[in-house]
Amino acid sequence: MQILYNSTRGLENNVPASQAILKGLASDGGLFVPQQIPELDVDPDILKGLSYKELAFEIMKRFLTDYTDEELKYCIDHAYDDKFEVPEAAAMHDCGNVCFLELYHGATIAFKDMALSILPYLMTTAAKKNNMSSEIVILTATSGDTGKAALAGFADVPGIRIIVFYPKDGVSRVQEKQMVTQKGDNTRVIAIRGNFDDAQTGVKKMFNDKELQKELKEAGFEFSSANSINIGRLVPQIVYYVWAYYQMVNMGKIASGEKINIVVPTGNFGNILAAYYAYRMGLPVNRLICASNENKVLFDFFETGIYDKNREFILTSSPSMDILVSSNLERLIFEATGYDAERSSAYMAALRTGGKYEITPEMKDKMKIFVGGTADELETAEVIRKYYNEKDYILDPHTAVGAAVYEKYGKLTGDETPTVIASTASPYKFARSVLAAIDKKYDEHDDMTLFSDLNSLSKMPMPKAITELFDAPVRHNTVIDIEEMKKTVTDSLMKG
Q1: Local structure of residue 429 (DSSP, 8 states)
Q2: Cα(103)–Cα(84) distance, rounded to whole angstroms?
Q3: Which terminus of the chain, N or C, has less C-beta within 10 A?
Q4: Residue-wise pLDDT tens digits, 361-402
Q5: Rounded CA gap, 157 and 125, in Å?
Q6: Is the pTM of this model over 0.90?
Q7: Does 148 map to a domain?
Q8: What pLDDT, on a 0 to 100 scale, did the predictor assign at position 468?
Q9: CA angle 27, 64, 212 (to 5 degrees)
Q10: Is 444 within the bounds of a domain?
Q11: Which residue range(s) make up the domain with 382?
Q12: What single string gives the DSSP state of each residue in 128-168?
């Protein structure tokens, strides 16, 4: 069965997967969505015995139907190799009725590695398939993790340049150090004076600037994206939820066919949307629990049906979730309208012009698989301390938001369904926040000492991504105003 892709805004339809991946964003500003969600029609007894790579092939071949089996296997084999520090790319940590799906064992110790390790291979394969002669320019805004994972994935890939924008004061010290020390002659990292939403808006404006695209195309460049707006980012993320389910089966936590809850700490909605797509493929899911920090725009949306970004932007200890415009929600909105591009476009226009929109009760009913929850900074710190003291397990602040939301959900509902919590980053990436939650004395230590402290407390080996930071020289030190983003991109490309 061939799967083609339509834009959520209706002006670009019947697009093959490889072209959707190359474009990243549709020409009308919409996001590409599959015309239908394929069924995972494989015997569960077979699925539970598959390796991560084998499962990735079974899922991805159902979405990326214009890739040959050989092309997909090549991409998968080269993505999920020894750059991951565990045998199966992901790992499961058993905490009783809850299991943590550890997605941070890749090159940049965050869940973005799971998809951004394969995207460069999917993209370069797509370029060959479509006889693309232009140099691809990956243009990405990051709230901390996507940027480094994309930089690591695309560094020195022939025919591709990558430019990453991040909020100067809106990422952790480790996240910033990881980005500004990135090697690769084709990489550029730029800090902006603003927040992530400013960076994301600036990037979207460039994607929608037809004159800019024409100018760059004449010079031999074409934009694409490594953000989760790219369907090539989203599809690989489906894999680890299905893999986690069958790990639960193999661990004896559930019987095959039994439902689970999935908790995802999220800001841009891509990671939990991948879990929803897994559910739509047939994964037995009871509830998808969307966990927000104090920037709780998604929690309020699932509670009220009103999406309203007109609120204070709060800097938290979980910066990858400090987002008020959740781009991937547009895909869910489009589905809830019954794939009505006109209505979906109207909601997005209302968000652009007035900062808010309200969906219908019928649409809200179609989203009842989702439950929203929120945890503030105090609750997040308390959960980190609790898991360390009671379970000898250390959570990063994003994962702790998920755990705190799950605890509140359980108390409110009494739901004891076996649960997977997506653990989205290594505690090493947020060592200061993690250790300060455990004991305030650590807040006085310098960064290098903090890594040693965490190593002693966690008994987790220090990841290569951290040890490499110790002596890495800064290679990128540009800081600009929001209004300079377009000129910085054109100067970077035109002047080399």
Answers
A1: G
A2: 10
A3: C
A4: 999 999 999 999 999 999 999 999 999 999 999 999 999 999
A5: 12
A6: yes
A7: no
A8: 87
A9: 20
A10: yes
A11: 91-110+232-462
A12: HHTT--SEEEEEEE-SSHHHHHHHHHHTT-TTEEEEEEEET
